[in-house]
Amino acid sequence: MKIPTPSTSASSSSSLKAKFRTYFSRASSYTTSNYQPLSHPASNFSSFDDDENDVLMIDAPHCDEHEHATSFNASSSSSNKRPKPKEMSPERIDEGFFQKLISEPEEISRKIDFLSSLPIEIAAYIMQFVDLPTLINMCSVSKTWYSMAMDNETWKEQFHRRQGWHARLPPSGPAPLDINWKYIYRQRYALDKRWKQGLVDKIYLEGHTDSVYCIQFDEEKIVTGSRDRSIKFWDIGTKSCIRTLTGHDASVLCLQYDEERMISGSSDTTIIIWSMQTFTPLRRLRGHIAGVLDICFDTKHIVSCSKDMYIKIWNLHSGELIRTLSGHRGPVNAVQMKNGKIVSASGDALIKLWDMETGVCLREYTGHRRGLACVQYDGKRIVSGSNDHTIKIWDAETGHCIMTMQEHTDLVRTLHFNDERIVSGSYDQSIRVWDIKTGACILNVESGHSSWVFDVQFSATKIVSTSQDQKILIIDFSDGIDTRCFS
Amino acid sequence: MSDPANITLVTMDGTTFTVPSAYLHRSKLVQDWLRSEGDKQAMEVKHVTPFVLQGVLNFCEIHAEDTSEPLADPADPTKPFEADPRDDAFRGMPDDQLLQFTMAADILQIPELVRLTAQEMASRIDGKSPDQIRAMFNPDDLAEEDVDSDNEMGEVGEEGAISK
Prior knowledge:
heterodimer, A: Methylamine Dehydrogenase, Chain H, 3 domains, 9 helices, B: 164 residues, three-stranded mixed β-sheet, SKP1-like_dim_sf (chain B), E3 ubiquitin ligase complex SCF subunit (chain B), Skp1_comp_POZ (chain B), ubl conjugation pathway (chain B)
């Protein structure tokens, strides 16, 4: 017998179409390779459509099947693996056997229901790419389609396909297979609808006796800093003030906390590191010569910025000043850090990107026409708010401004974004929600505060904002929705 | 011993295809076979017709020089799908043919082709009403029984099984 030749042997085939035609009519096989490389004019498999020439070529004498006395193994037992010379015997063709396998379009008269034909994981995989309305339509196609479309795995995939949707499953909760993804999907969908329609409950927390400048919150509590020099802890469930910390000698302008510690910055020019266990000051950092306007920290460093036009990097654990970054020509109103880089926004209308290690200014982002009040940086994107009333989204890498949102009618004082949306607060007293992809303003809460909005933070279920009107506003989208899995 | 630079695939009817082994570096089935039985003459690819295998191999040839990291899993969310004009042949393909390629991609375990065909299939269903889907795929409520008899047919290899 012949060993299949390694070459792709254009010589052995006059026409690939003819070969397949012959294959289907004679079911013969070949000892030479039948692969047609792409350079062959007839090789594109999309050109396999029937035409008269094909039909005529079936019996074309130059077809080489006759030259190769080939075996016919299609219906022979699997024990015989190597092609063996054998007399062709067309009468042995089992047409029924080939019915499902013959793939030329004209050979198949009935349409194939792919959901029933494909391995279930492939069918499920295809359904990942189908949008929700289509999935609903699929339910009423047939019983099989219904059961596939209702499959838990399908809904899990649908959930995870949604931009910005994250489920936080309780570690002590049900086993992964017992999670009802359709239920979770429905809850999340309802929540999204609330955000879009602005169907909200507004709750106010009152207790500060002056402007409330800064805020952070989690599942249990809200923490706020005020011009009344205090920091207050609020129970997010009962909405009552559970703790008041004093220590600063002037307004608390900024704060950030984690499980272990809280860092606050003040008009008194100092930074206080607080214990989150004992709620007492651990350390006070002095170095700025004007109010500390914003701070942030990670596992090693604290970064602070000030009205004194400087940015300072501190050792989180020792409190030692590591470096001072100078370059801004106005007060530095906001600072953020990510992956060893610092982004700062200043009253000089510039955003700067700094290398934490070297202190070198890597880039400037120019475009705002007036001073900047706020900035957030996620490692790729920078979003900034300015006294020119606009919000701009920047590509941190290229320095290009990707988008400008221009609907606020006064200084954009604060903003917070995630992969889905931006929430901004302004001196125009409104809080706006923007689609970060399209830049469209999807919600405008105009009547939330009666004065300037100073700070805003949001989660999947709520927006919490603070204002000069001394109030803390909770805009809650989750009433009646099971939000245990979302944060 | 076969030429290590090339690999010969045999479809179930005995048609052989010899291509450079490099074409199939994204096929887990072929890679596994090369590791365990690479000294044999040819690899059998059952349940794939010559027509479909030719198309799959063309796909592999087109993408043989791609430098992208091979996909471990077609559903890898970190590697979003991007349409490639070189794969336009799949866009014009009839539904049933596309289905055969999906199956072949699954059999040969080529995640890139599974993703391509699944995406194409989904885009054909997307936005369709139940009636339109029925018209495309002609499913019926006896589909479950169909699956059973089809499996049986695969084993028995006789037409008779279908009529049960």
